[in-house]
Amino acid sequence: MVRGSSSRGSQKCRCLLLGLTVILILGAVVVFAAMIFTRRRDSPAELPQWKGRGSTPNLKEIMLGRCFTYIRMVNPELGKDCLKIWETFKNAFICKNPCNITEKDYQPVMELAAYPIPCNKTLLWSKTSELAHKYTKIQDNLLTLENMLLGYMADGLTWCGSPSSSEIDYQSCPRWDECANNPSSIYWKMASKIFAEAACGVVHAMLNGSISHAFVNSSIFGSVEIHHLNPKKVHLMKIWVMHDIIGGQSSDSCSGSSIKQLKSIVEGRNISFSCEDDHRSVQLIQCVAHPEEPACKICRN
Ligand code: N1C
C-alpha cells in the first residue's frame, strides 16, 4: 500500500520533469526562431541604401572647424556666424530625400555665407583641382571657390540626410550617377553659379590638356560657370591649358577643337577670349616635383 503510493508519487514527479523539459525546449526553439526571424528582417535595412559612400564622419566638427579657421585666420574681416552657417547648411538636406534637393534648399546658407570677391581675382578650373589649388596657395593674386568660405568648408566632403530621419546619413549617399539632384551636386552647382556671377574684370580658367577634351560641356565649368559670367562685368576670359609634366603627353591644347568650342561660347557671350598652353608660372609649380623634366630646364628649346 505504502509502496504503491510512493511509486505513483515518483511517476507524477517524472511527468512533471518531462513536462518542464518539453516547455524549456519549446521555449528555446521559440526564442531561437524569433532571433533568426528578426535578424532576417533587419538585414535588408542594414544594407546601404545608396551606392555612394556615406557622409564624412565628424562632418559637423570638420565644417565648423574649417569655418572658424577661415573666419579667424584666413579672412578675419568677414565677421560670419559659423554656428548659424552650419545649422543653415544642415537644414538644406536634413530630413529630405537626397535625390530631391533643390537650389531653394541651399538659398539660405548661400546668402548667409556670401561676400564680394575683388575684380580680376577669379580662377575657375576643370579637371585641374590639385594644380589650381597648389597655385592659389602660393600666389594670392588669384582665388578659386575653395578659397571662399563656402568652398573652403565643403571641399572634399560628402553629406546627405534621409526623409525618415533627422540624422545625417553616415552609411551611404547617392552617387552622381544615381540621381542628379543629390546634396553635393546641387551645392557645388549653386556655389559655382554664385561664384561665377560675382566675377568681374579678367577671369582665368585652368583646364587639363592631358585628357581627351580640355573643355567638356557637361562639367560644372562648362555647364554652369561660363554661362553665369556677367558680360557687363567680365571683359576677358584667359584660359590656361596645362599638361602633365611627366612624359609631356598632350591630348588637347589651345588649338584643339574643344577649346575652339569654348572660344565660340565665350565670344558669343560678348566676352573676349585668350588661351595659352602651359602658362609658365603654373608649370614651374609642376617643375618643383620634377625638375629633371625637359620642360623644366631653364634653357628650353
Ligand atoms: O565639374 P568641374 O570640374 O568643371 O567643376 C569645377 C568648377 C570650378 O571652376 C569650381 O569653381 O566648378 C567649381 N567646383 C568646385 O569648386 C569644387 N570643389 C570641389 C566644382 N566642383 C567642385 N568640387 C568637386 O569636384 C565636386 O564634387 C565636383 O563633382 C568635382 C568637379 O570637378 P571637375 O569635374 O574637375
Q: What keyword list fits this structure?
A:
single chain, 301 residues, alpha/beta, ADP Ribosyl Cyclase, Chain A, domain 1, four-stranded parallel beta sheet, two-stranded antiparallel ribbon, 10% strand, binds N1-cyclic inosine 5'-diphosphoribose
Question: TL;DR of this structure?
Answer:
With 301 residues, this protein is an alpha/beta fold.
Question: Could you explain the architecture of this structure?
Answer:
The protein has 301 residues and is of the alpha/beta class. The protein has one domain (52-296): ADP Ribosyl Cyclase, Chain A, domain 1. Helix content is 48%, strand content 10%. The protein is built from ten helices and six strands, in the order H-E-H-H-H-E-H-H-E-H-E-H-E-H-E-H. A four-stranded parallel beta sheet has the order 2-4-5-6. Helix 3 runs antiparallel to helix 4 (103-113). The chain is elongated and about 110 Å long. Residues 36-44 have low confidence and may be disordered.
